[in-house]
Amino acid sequence: MAVPVLQRVFSNLLGPAAVMAAGTMGAGAAASLILTGAWFRYELLWVIPLILPIFVLSVDSASRVGLLNPRTGMFSQIRQHIHPTVAWLIFAINVPVHLLIGMGQMSVLTSALMSLLGFYPPEAAATADYAASYHYWEIGLSVAAGGAIVWLLTSGGYQRMQRVMTGLMIVMFIGFFIVALTGLQEIGAIVAGFAPSIPDDLAVPGQQAMRSSSGSIIAIVGSALAPAALLGIPYMCADNLRGKPDLPAELRKSVLNLGVVFGGYSVFVIIAGGYALYPLDNHAAIDTVHEAGKVLVNAFPEGLGFLGPIIFTAGLLIAALTTFVVVVQVMCYFCLDMLGLDWRDVKENKSFRRLLVLWILLPAILAPFWSFPALLKVLLLMGFNAIVIPLVLVIVLILVNKRALMGEYKASLGRNMVLLAGLVLSVWLVVEKLPDYVQMITG
Length: 443
What we know:
The chain has one domain (2-67, 90-336, 344-442): Amino acid/polyamine transporter I (Up-down Bundle), CATH 1.20.1740. The protein is an all-alpha fold. It has helices at 2-14, 18-25, 27-40, 47-68, 74-81, 84-116, 128-154, 157-160, 162-182, 187-192, 213-224, 227-240, 247-276, 289-292, 307-338, 350-366, 374-400, 403-406, 413-442; strands at 202-203, 210-211. The chain contains 19 helices and 2 strands.
């Protein structure tokens, strides 16, 4: 009975509101959380309960804009109720950033696929022939994966794959849960991790690079409060609306899916990374899919530990695919809405289909030429998300307080206080911690 129940929960995440899946269970969140545990053990667990109320209410607030105004896109709302310049500014930021996000997710997908095939990123001692061979395979698999995703989305195959994707996500979730349970023997250190503190930055042995605790905090916040999710979920909700919206029921779903599921998942992943990877001698140097896959070795009985990296890699591949698909869909919404065209994701909308192909193939072709470890790519891009969050939260705050848009569901004092808390947190992270984050990436 437990598995069918979990399947229903994960199906909700991977169904109509697919942006929620990308924001909670995607490769960006998995990479941020795994590396946080690997680098800093349990010391940043406190970040999760801090951001959960902000995460739940910000996504729920943005979704209400679409549910109550299903015929008008989010960027049209920004143009009409704030200013056209603001809409174009946000759009101009989102196009290059989300091209990079698409490239990052494609890199994770390709890297995971190659790891499953036994090809690992070339190390410093690797021969030139191996490095060249790896790069050629990376280019070929990235383009092939792009073509497969085009078929997947234009043929209806994505919907048919929902159960398969959900099943693999459940296996990875259970693996993290088992490792986290094993890690409960360190319950004292885990409980201490929920007390707010910022650990010292971590030097990578043999390198000049540093692992910044501030960078990990920014990445976690950026993966949860993804601007694409906040701006894109109104379109998703409007596209899937049937009948009159039930906003209290939608809030309850947000609390369950984003608060309980995402919160539990995040804690499990950090604990798993802290328990399984932090004790390794090279824990500060971990930045590849293959190395991070060791997190699930302890999830299986002795003699079957080899299955851990395989399950992790397959799960990360699916997470990257899910996030990539969401990014593609959201950017199609944004582009068409800004151009004043029909933005609905329906079969007869040929403009949506053409744009879909472009936004799939462009990052697939470009991704292999971005030389950077795959997991660090998505960590970097979660940081870019954090930079844009303050502006997007201001937009959400303005719109949910417009009675002309929200009617009787205009934001309450409590909702506004939580959203303002999120705005203050995001601004503080950008102003105070961004230099440390940049140093982590460039160091």
